[in-house]
Design a protein that fits this description.
The structure is a single chain. Helix 4 packs antiparallel against helix 5 and helix 6 packs antiparallel against helix 11. This protein has a single domain, classed as Cytochrome-c3 Hydrogenase, chain B (Orthogonal Bundle), CATH 1.10.645.10. It has 14 helices and twelve strands. With about 400 residues, the protein is α+β, with helices and mostly antiparallel strands. The strands form five sheets. A three-stranded antiparallel sheet has the order 1-2-3. A hairpin with a 4-residue loop joins strand 2 and strand 3.
């Protein structure tokens, strides 16, 4: 007589992801039947903190939403304020801001790789490879400090461009450092290939396709373009409104974002698929897209540094604060990031709203886990690189 697989329910804390979250799965012995990604981080309320504040404060504040994609939030914020106030940065300011944002993207992808290495590498070489990766991250951080003013939360991001123009010596030295980073990164990446090819979990995830229900969303390969999509088509729901299981869904502190009432994947893979004809469709291809994007972005940074003119303006001269509404769209490390702002007559924040990539990606993540072996659930979540602090927007208050 054949045995019948029994349905089971498992709730476990997730580790090696950006923030506090749980994975609740319904499964039998062979496959996941349904999955819930439950974020448990406390709400910090940045969208409320910035109300009534000067835009200069807001830029500094929103970068503190995340310690990983800090510059991405800073750039999205200044783009929103510039849109509201009718400001156009000079070429140098725009290019330097793009360099800062792309350095942040490389930082984020490399930080994320430190979380994946234990899934890929045998214990006897894990420590060595982690140290090599940390050395690479430190080199990227050094360039960020020279161009952005600090390795994290770079203070040179400013309305109208950047606060400080690097000297010609700093630019030339940064180009040499980036060229060295490219060589070191390619050697490091190729050194991981043999272990990835032998890793049974990676091999299985190469055969598991991403959710076919999801479209992809990206606006630009390197920066962001608010005219590449329609921001008015974004809708935001509480997690427990999106999922039918209210008992489980009410535990999450994240919001869910849909585009044109559809779930969409906003990710490095989406960017490459739209703008570089990237064909990878498996769960593991989420990570392969980061491998590709790091090298592509580093070469873009070199190109931008070559185009900086040391004696040309780097910021608009005068800022006049007044009423206005603006949208800032930026391609953050994890995908499309959107900041909405409305200013009062004094130029202070009247309304502020933030839509982050993980809000788009949570539904895609959950659907992509279906039919996967239960033992692979945690690694599959890590491949999406969810950023829980960014997606935490919701607090249920009970009387």
């Amino acid at each position: 007589m054949l045995g019948v697989a029994m349905t089971q329910k498992t709730l476990r804390e997730l580790d090696r992801i950006g923030g506090d979250a749980q994975l609740y799965i319904i499964h039998d012995d062979d496959r996941i039947i349904d999955a819930y990604f439950i974020t448990t981080a406390p709400v910090r309320g940045f969208e409320k903190i910035v109300l009534g504040k000067n835009p200069l404060f807001v830029i500094e504040a929103v970068m503190r939403i995340c310690g990983i994609c800090h510059a991405a939030h800073g750039i999205a914020a200044v783009e929103a304020f510039e849109d509201a106030l009718g400001i156009m940065p000079p070429a140098n300011g725009r290019r330097l801001r793009e360099v800062i944002g792309l350095l942040n993207r490389v930082q984020s992808h490399l930080y994320h790789l430190t979380l994946l290495l234990p899934d890929i590498l045998p214990n006897e070489i894990l420590g060595k490879k982690l140290l090599e990766l940390i050395n690479l991250i430190n080199k990227v951080n050094d360039v960020m400090m020279r161009i952005g003013g600090a390795p994290t939360h770079p203070p040179y991001i400013a309305i109208g461009g950047v606060l400080k123009m690097p000297t010609e010596t700093v630019i030339n030295d940064s180009k040499k450092k980036v060229a060295d980073i490219i060589k070191q990164y390619i050697d490091y990446r190729e050194g991981l290939r043999e272990f990835i090819d032998k890793c049974s979990s990676a091999v299985k995830l190469k055969k598991q396709y991403l959710s076919s229900d999801a479209d992809i969303l990206a606006t630009h390969l390197f920066y962001g373009d608010r005219y590449a999509f329609d921001p008015s088509k974004i809708t935001v729901k509480r997690y427990d409104e999106y999922r039918e299981n209210k008992e489980i869904g009410s535990k999450s502190t994240s919001m869910i974002a849909l585009y044109d009432d559809r779930i969409v994947e906003a990710s490095p893979r989406a960017r490459l698929q739209l703008f570089r004809e990237y064909s990878g469709k498996s769960l593991w291809d989420l990570q392969e897209a980061r491998f590709v994007e790091i090298e592509l972005v580093l070469h873009r940074i070199l190109e931008l540094l070559d185009r900086i003119r040391p004696n040309a303006p780097h910021r608009t001269g005068t800022l006049v604060y007044e009423h206005g509404e603006g949208i800032g769209v930026y391609e953050a490390p994890r995908g499309t990031l959107v900041h909405f702002v409305e200013l009062n007559d004094d130029g202070r924040v009247l309304k502020y709203k933030i839509i982050v990539p993980t809000m788009f990606n949570i539904p895609v993540l959950e659907k992509s886990l279906i039919n996967l072996e239960p033992s692979l659930g945690d690694l599959a979540v890590r491949l999406f690189d969810p950023c829980v602090p960014c997606s935490t927007h919701y607090l249920r208050v009970r009387k």
